[in-house]
Amino acid sequence: WRVWAIYMVLAPNLSEEQVLKQACPSCDATQLCNCSSMGLDFIPPGLTGKITTLNLAHNRIKHIRSQDLQQAVNLRALLLQSNKISSIDKDSFRSLGKLELLDLSNNSLAHLSPEWFEHLFSLQHLHLQGNSYRDLGESSPFSSLRNLSSLHLGNPWFSTIRQGNFEGIELLDKLWIDGGRLSQYRPGSLKSIKKINHMIISIKSISVFSAIVRDLLYTVTWLEVREIKLEIEKKSLVQNSTLPFKIQKLTFKDASFTDQYISLLIILLKEITSLQELEAIDCVLEGKGKWDVEEIANSGQSFVETVSIINVTIPDFHLFFDLDGMESQINKLKRFTIASSRVFMIPCKLAKNFSLLLYLDLHDNLLVNNRLNETICEDAWPSLQTLNLSQNSLKSLKQTAYFVTRLHKLINLDISQNNFGEIPDVCEWPKNLKFLNLSRTQILKLTTCIPPTLEVLDVSANNLKEFGLQLPFLRELYLTKNHLKTLPGAAPIPNLVAMSVRRNKLNGFSREEFEGVQVGAVHLSLMECHRSLVVSLLCALVVLVMLVLVAIGYKYHAVWYLRMTWAWLQAKRKPKRAPLKDICYDAFVSYSEHDSDWVENIMVRELEQACPPFRLCLHKRDFVPGKWIVDNIIDSIEKSHKTLFVLSEHFVQSEWCKYELDFSHFRLFDENNDAAILVLLEPIQSKAIPKRFCKLRRIMNTKTYLEWPLEEEQQEMFWENLKGALKS
């Protein structure tokens, strides 16, 4: 109310920009306008085209009017989350054609309108979660958002997804649906999205979960399911679906399982042959491990190679079975993580069947030394290369090392954040051990217990006062956060290339600490002695050769010929004309960035709002993200009925405009048709066109072209002529 009062008092005497400065001081002369948490109940006036980021989050705005954002034509990010927005005029975002991020989350929107997003051609990220809408409407609110990359929607009242709700969206990097009360899902609703890299859905209905999985088998790479209470439903997850599937990773987070459903889920997931990784995070297993191992074994082999179980709670973990009979289901696993889950032992019989396992992570559990004999028994984990036992309750380094010697292929060992204290002089270790992490283990002094085969040793955050070990193969040494007063000697670690000694008590260095082998006893090549000089000379030579090649290429138009060759090869593989069903646009518009204001704000508006409207292809909004720009140009021209060139002095200087002319010169003019329309935005001589476009120059001399008149009374005739040319 204070901001509103200031506005009412000052508005008659201040310009809009001055009012904006009063309401939101950070908006003065900056591209970033931060008006968050200022108690605003309206969008301040005076927003201009210089603003690219507008943050109005955490205010009390209830309504967005058509004129509120009309002048903010260069906005890239608009943050409106955590307001009280309940209504938006249909034209409120009409001028925001460059907007890439729109956050309307945590407001009071009771419905979503396609008209809001109709002109947001550049939008990549849309956040709509936390409102009060119960569905997405009868059709798709997102049909105009061709460049959308991430979409977050849903709320505690969201209950219905209908067929066609996602029409218009083809590719998404991330789709997040808060659907805790989602109870009505029309099968096939998500199939219109051709590819989703990561989908997160909060859901409680097991039937809806099954239907969504069936729809996503061919589109999603990583599916993350949250808050589900998994109950019995024996219906197949793939149900009449054909191979190959695409889903590779399945994550359950904040989910609840029973023994019965675990057995059924293991069987059902085997049908998804593409599934390689399973993950359970912050879940609860309400059971004792009494699984139907016989039925699981009879259902065949699993294709999963990676399993991660993190912070899983088992209320009756002290009664948990040893999973006897599950051996046949684990012999193909390569990576296994079970962390922060109060594990105190893995049965030896089970451990012996992890025959292909390369990586085992047991950090933050309840492992103790007298149980390691069972977990790492003879012949257990035969292929293991990496083992993480950090953050457990291990107290004897000698015993730990002894049990680890049974892992003959072990290379990496992390036993940090245990409490070893004093360590013995002699220990046994695996012969191939190269990486050892002993950080934060309360070690007071290092002894010859440390294996001499190491290449990397981390003893950070201990109580070490010196380091005098002889480690001939060591290349990296981490001594951070100890009590060292002097540097380690160079002779015992001759191959060291990296050492970290931050946060110690070093107060000076002696000459001896920096001396190694005498230079006279070392035989170095010219490269080793004068590396900087040799590298500099080589770089200079490479640069000189490149400059010569560039000069030759420029003189003889080599780049142009390469481009034309590529265009020719592309065109040879395509028909002369695209089939009518592949024509998506009335015209592809080729123009210079310097002329974008006229094209985007005048021509596009006139043609796309005509009756009937013309469908134009513009590189800024219609090119496929991530696709090579040359392919975008070629495909856009091929899929357009006409190619409209907006010619100006800037046009002929533009590198990409030249390429578009290259391809059109080859593809369109050589077909002797009328697919090219020339619009002269300003007077231009035909000689300004590059000489190698001889046919284009000839067309300018022989064919009628349209010239933009400066007089308003002649502009109506110009538009009629242009529309007629587009229809022909």
Automatic annotation (TrEMBL):
Q: Where are the transmembrane segments?
A: 533-554
Q: Which domain of life is it from?
A: Eukaryota
Q: Name one Pfam family in it.
A: TIR
Disulfide bond sites = 27-33, 348-377, 427-449
Give the record's membrane topology. Answer: Single-pass type I membrane protein
> Which biological process terms from the Gene Ontology are attached to this UniProt entry?
inflammatory response; innate immune response; toll-like receptor signaling pathway
Main localisation: membrane
Instruction: Name one molecular function that GO assigns to this entry.
Output: transmembrane signaling receptor activity
| Subcellular location as annotated | Membrane
Q: Which residues form the TIR domain?
A: 583-726
**Keyword annotations from UniProtKB, A to Z:** Disulfide bond, Glycoprotein, Immunity, Inflammatory response, Innate immunity, Leucine-rich repeat, Membrane, Receptor, Repeat, Signal, Transmembrane, Transmembrane helix
UniProt KW Transmembrane helix keyword: yes
Presence of the UniProt keyword Zinc in the record: no
Q: Which GO terms describe its cellular component?
A: plasma membrane; receptor complex
Please state which protein family the record places this protein in.
Belongs to the Toll-like receptor family.
Q: What's the protein here called? A: TLR21 protein
Q: Which gene encodes it?
A: Tlr21
